From TrEMBL:
Keywords: Membrane, Transmembrane, Transmembrane helix
Lineage: Bacteria, Bacillati, Actinomycetota, Actinomycetes, Pseudonocardiales
Transmembrane segments: 12-32, 44-68, 80-100, 120-143
Stated name of the protein: Uncharacterized protein
Native source organism of the sequence: Actinophytocola oryzae
Length: 160
């Protein structure tokens, strides 16, 4: 097993690892909140549905895979795998936000009267979306910088 060296982890890799770790932490914060007449309830990512909790797992997996080569585990096509995991997680979080039950701002506009009803995305969901975007951007930059196989006409791309 290879020795782990903090100096060999690039800033982009730290972004991916940090996004995965922080996604786990904010998954316990409110992702959806409802309040009525001063009484409120909130749900974490683990109670908000598949799109929420699965996206957290995807970001955590991406962070773990980014660290794996630093512990001596070879991961083929790591930049591509990281990019797919982070992008899918980001899309899932965005879809979860768009599909949450919401009063549509009617409580804020007074259409419902002064009912005191409010609902919407919580702090955890907003931060989770930002973490997904950070991981996706870092993955895109890493993918673009990764060496591409050079092949000519009639050559097998798997043979170096």
């Amino acid at each position: 097993m290879a020795e782990f060296d903090l100096k060999r982890v690039t800033p982009l890799e730290w972004a991916g690892v940090g996004a995965g770790a922080l996604a786990f932490i904010v998954s316990f914060f409110p992702w959806y909140s409802v309040s009525y007449a001063g009484f409120g309830e909130s749900l974490s990512a683990w109670n908000t549905g598949f799109l929420a909790w699965f996206s957290v797992l995807l970001l955590m997996a991406a962070g773990g895979l980014v660290l794996a080569p630093h512990f001596g585990t070879k991961v083929d096509r790591l930049p591509l795998i990281w990019l797919v995991l982070a992008a899918v997680a980001t899309v899932f979080i965005l879809l979860r936000w768009l599909t949450l039950p919401d009063d549509g701002g009617l409580g804020d506009l007074g259409v419902l009267g002064d009912s005191g009803f409010e609902s919407g995305a919580g702090f955890g969901l907003i931060v989770g979306l930002l973490l997904g975007i950070v991981s996706t951007v870092a993955a895109v930059l890493t993918f673009r910088a990764a060496p591409k196989p050079v092949t000519g006409y009639g050559q097998n791309p798997t043979v170096a």
